[in-house]
Structure formats: structure tokens, C-alpha cells
């Protein structure tokens, strides 16, 4: 009985509003600085989002491949990775592991590659709903919930089967 009480207390503490999101936002940006996908995990006014996105584009896009992929911006750490003409930028809090997020970006791109067979910017633009489903399967409320590529694609494959029949 004491074990159950402790477990409930732990869950109550874990589910309290004091827990912060590890991921603040997720952006896909092309080389021209156009936002192709944005997902915010914390509420933010649209005006502030626009200013934030402009600053992120100014800070990340001009960097060379020799420079570090981790940038400190105000109270957020930016972790970004470039794939051909697309940049994936994730904003995280100070306590989060940058390398884990860096690998999360790579895993996200591998899932896109697996689903779209060599993903490109046009695949993302014309299938934005599917890209959002993939992202939702991987990240929930700013926390990573799944990294297994096959499990991430299960809802999309089921959706594809339903549309075929």
C-alpha cells in the first residue's frame, strides 16, 4: 500500500505545472529563410514568434559547416542541422542535452526519408499534414516520446491504407 501512495505522489509531482518543456519549438527553414514548418510547444504571441523566427534565421543560416551547431540565443539554446537546402532548428531550455537533440533532428530526417523515399522540400510542402503527424508521433508537449522509425510510421501507413481502399 505504501508503494502505491509513493507512486501516486511521484506522478502528481511529475504532472504538476512546474515541469518545463524540454523543446520550446521546432522549425524547418529553407536556405532562403522561408519557414516551411513551425511547431511551438509553449504559448507565444504571433508577433513574438515572427520576431523570434527572424532572429533565428539571422543567427543560424549564415553559419558555415565548420561552426558549431549549437547557438545560445537569449534564454534558449538553438540546435540546428542542415540537410541540403533545409535547416532543422530546435529551441531547447538550458538544462537539455544538445547532442541528444542533435540526434533527434537526424532521426526525424531519417523517418522522413523512410516515408517519402529521399525527402525533399517539395515533399514537405505538399504533404505538410503527414510531416506534422510524424512530428507529433515523435514529440508530444515538448517531450520526446518515440524514436523508433517503424513505430512512428504506423499511423501514417494505416492512414495510407485507408485512403487506398
Sheet of most strands = 5 strands, antiparallel
Using only CA atoms, what is the Rg? 18 Å
Work out the helix count.
6
Cα distance, first to last residue?
51 Å
Assembly annotation: single chain
- Give the SSE order as H and E letters: HEEHEEEHHHEEH
Spatial strand order of the main sheet: 2-1-5-4-3
Class by alpha and beta content? alpha+beta
Helix content: 40-55%
Strand residues, percent? 15-25%
Structure summary, number of beta strands? 7
Uncertain residue segments: 1-18
- Please state the overall shape, judged from the principal axes of the Cα atoms: globular
* Overall pLDDT score: 87
In short:
By secondary structure, this protein is an alpha+beta fold. Helix content is 48%, strand content 22%.
Task: Give an account of the 3D structure.
By secondary structure, this protein is of the alpha+beta class. The protein has 6 helices and 7 strands; from the N terminus they run αββαβββαααββα. The strands form 2 sheets. Strands 2-1-5-4-3 form a 5-stranded antiparallel sheet, with helices on both faces. α3 runs parallel beside α6 and α5 runs antiparallel to α6. It is globular, with a radius of gyration of 18 Å. The N and C termini lie far apart (51 Å). The N terminus is likely disordered.
Amino acid at each position: 500500500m505504501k508503494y502505491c501512495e509513493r507512486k501516486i505522489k511521484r506522478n502528481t509531482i511529475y504532472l504538476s505545472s512546474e515541469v518545463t518543456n524540454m523543446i520550446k519549438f521546432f522549425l524547418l527553414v529553407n536556405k532562403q529563410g522561408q519557414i516551411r514548418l513551425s511547431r511551438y510547444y509553449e504559448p507565444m504571441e504571433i508577433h513574438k514568434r515572427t520576431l523570434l523566427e527572424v532572429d533565428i534565421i539571422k543567427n543560424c543560416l549564415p553559419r558555415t559547416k565548420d561552426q558549431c551547431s549549437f547557438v545560445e540565443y537569449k534564454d534558449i539554446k538553438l540546435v540546428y542541422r542542415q540537410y541540403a537546402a533545409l535547416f532543422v532548428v530546435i529551441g531547447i531550455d538550458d538544462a537539455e542535452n544538445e547532442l541528444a537533440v542533435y540526434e533527434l533532428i537526424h532521426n526525424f530526417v531519417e523517418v522522413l526519408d523512410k516515408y517519402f523515399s529521399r525527402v525533399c522540400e517539395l515533399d514537405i510542402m505538399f504533404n505538410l499534414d503527414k510531416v506534422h503527424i510524424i512530428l507529433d508521433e515523435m514529440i508530444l508537449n515538448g517531450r520526446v516520446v518515440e524514436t523508433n522509425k517503424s513505430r512512428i510510421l504506423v499511423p501514417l501507413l494505416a492512414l495510407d491504407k485507408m485512403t487506398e481502399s
